[in-house]
Known about the structure:
The protein is of the alpha/beta class. Helix content is 30%, strand content 19%. The protein is built from 13 helices and 15 strands. The protein has helices at residues 2-16, 20-28, 32-37, 59-63, 74-87, 106-115, 179-186, 254-260, 271-277, 306-317, 337-345, 369-380, 399-411, and strands at 54-57, 94-99, 121-126, 132-133, 146-153, 169-175, 193-197, 214-218, 237-241, 266-270, 295-301, 324-329, 360-364, 387-391, 420-424. The chain has a 15-stranded parallel sheet that branches. Strand 6 (169-175), helix 7 (179-186) and strand 7 (193-197) form a beta-alpha-beta unit.
Amino acid sequence: MSEKRALYDNLEDRISNLPRNLIDGILERMSTRNAARTSILSKKWRYIWSTHPQLVLDYEFFYGPEGKNVRWTASEYVKVINKILIVHDGTIQEFDLFIPFAQSPEMDLWILILSRHGIKDLTLDNAYSQPYKLPCYLFSCAELTSLVLRNFIISVPPLDFLGFRNLNKLYLEKISLLPKIGSLISTLPVLHDLWLKSCTGLENLKVMPPKLNWLDVEDSHKFQWQCLKIRNSNLKELYVALCKEVEQQKDFDLMVLLSNITKIRRLRLDGFSLKFLAAGTQKEYQPIKVYKLAKVRLFSFQFNDLEQVLCALCLLRSSPYLQYLKIEVSTFTNDGMQQVLKYMEASGHFNLDVLDKLQTVKLKSCISKAVLQFAKLLLSCSPSLQQMTIDNRRQSINADEQLRISTELMRFPRASTKAELIYLL
């Protein structure tokens, strides 16, 4: 027994004598639940976890490792969070909270505590069916650099609120943007990333923040494209998925968009966005060149929709330095296909300028005449193309038809002698 005790004491001494910076490094790599358990290792470790600046009380914290429900009731969960915040000593730089129950009055207290601990990175994930109303204490978190909110009602800022001057990342999901909240977002001075998913009230977002670099709008069909009409010189990445058809506007189309995002590097649009931006694409015009655009991804695309095809072609003509193109078709139907084929077969219309920089093309679609003509066009005008992949695995066709399609693809002329054509069946 004495030898075992000596061995234990020696091990305890080694743990106790670890440098503080090493201990902090260990705790940074552990979940909050496991970090709290280190308090039993030695006297020196007992309260160190309570000074840890990152508190991650997320989905895994609530349900346990590998989704094993610890069966906390609402009152028990609130008590656990209360205890963690009460015993915490020092700044709280990061706080990530998963909320599975109905609104609790303690939420006001938690936000108030965080505002007094210098919170910088705040994530509140409300998984309950009804949205939470956030307290005004949120606007007391003046040092925020990152804010993630899911399923909340944001209160109107107090009159003396000076704005989140350090906020560079804002992710909002299932949030209603009141007029004053939309105005607040527009004036964030250093906002770098903005993500809006399933939000309402986007008509109140009339101007984008001046330093915005990355914008992602998903399932928010009331997104006002006019907010991009004021030149956004810093915008490098734009992702828009309207997920619903929106009426076109005469004063806004693809050319207007590109003229205001001339430094864009990556662009991802769904078919509904292309259809909205297609206004005026059949007119004769000098396309605006976007020389920084290197990656384009078009998803939920329809080759049987002439407006989407026209808009895609206009986009390619405006992207002389494009290197990567991916097009994903959601569903296949023959409705409208004859109109598209008639356009493609008309001499002088269905063409592209030389895409000198295009190296990779990925087409994920059921095979149709329109798809084959589009692939043929890209192969003929891409002298630097290295690989084109056509993924047809969702379509069930017989062996003879597969052979016919493969033979037709292989006969298409290629501008690049190094182009590899991969046909996935």
